[in-house]
Amino acid sequence: MQEVLPENAVIRKLWIGETGRYRGHLLRLDQESRRSRFGGAVSDETIAKHGHDCFGLDAIVHGCFIDGVLRAGAELRPLAVRRAQRAEAALSVERPWQGHGIGSALLQRTLLAARNRGYRLLHMACLVDNKRMQQLARKFDAELSFGFGSVVGKFSASRPTPLSLLRELLTDGHGVATAMLELQSRLLRA
Ligand SMILES: CC(C)(COP(=O)(O)OP(=O)(O)OC[C@H]1O[C@@H](n2cnc3c(N)ncnc32)[C@H](O)[C@@H]1OP(=O)(O)O)[C@@H](O)C(=O)NCCC(=O)NCCS
Fold it and tell me: Is the distance from the beta carbon of residue 131 to the nearest atom of ligand 1 less than 6 Å?
């Protein structure tokens, strides 16, 4: 699937030292997006703690930077130790950048990362009124099951291949190169 992103948007994996940037992004989500992201009303403290804790072992967080500011994120983490082939994902895009293809691009990267780590099933939960997330899940062939107030999207992943590993490696290489250039220009501006 072709990525169509806003100008100056860069998607790459976040590093462990970037928890502050991710926390900042989550705290900038408006009330409605926060509710959609976390399945209900959550306090700044809970969000700040989540932004810090989610960089635990085995979690992969992709971020979308626009003009150097982190405006969207996608988390991927194993669901439970005993079900090692299952993972869960969650996405967030700040309101002014919603509806510009960023969620689609982040989900595509997350699905590739899940596939390459041997996860066969990826779960993604959202509220029943979150039509945009459901449309996004359908676009990637998720099977949606509707429960009381929530919907769970299940994506089945193919087995990793040398080509799928290479695709991730190449996008990671591009991400590191752009991060280096961004750092250099920030240092020059300082
Ligand atoms: C849900 C979310 C991640 C989607 O990201 P996004 O960047 O806005 O999504 P995209 O621009 O890639 O669009 C996704 C699809 O939704 C469709 N869409 C947009 N608005 C819609 C609406 N009101 N109803 C139904 N579909 C809609 C788009 O047309 C697109 O489908 P298409 O490519 O087939 O046209 C983002 O809106 C968001 O962060 N929302 C708040 C947090 C959240 O809901 N997280 C999900 C729970 S984990």
Answer: yes
Closest CA to 55 of 113, 16, 81: 16
In short, whether 92's Cβ falls inside 6 Å of ligand 1 is yes
79-90 per-position pLDDT tens digit: 876 666 899 999
* Cα(145)–Cα(134) distance, integer angstroms: 10
Residue with tokens 């982190």: 70
The DSSP bridge partners found for residue 128 are none
Q: pTM score > 0.85 for this model?
A: yes
Question: SS3 of 13, please?
Answer: strand
The alpha carbon of 89 and the centre of ligand 1 are apart by a number of angstroms equal to 15
Q: What is the C-alpha separation between 30 and 36, in angstroms, rounded?
A: 10
Q: Is 9 in the pocket of ligand 1 (CB under 6 A)?
A: no
| Confidence tier at 157 by pLDDT (50, 70, 90) | confident
Q: How far apart are CA 119 and CA 168, in angstroms?
A: 15
Q: Is 116 in the pocket of ligand 1 (CB under 6 A)?
A: no
- For residue 44, give every residue at least 6 positions away whose Cβ sits within 8 Å of its Cβ, in sequence order, or none: 27
CA distance 143 to 156: 9
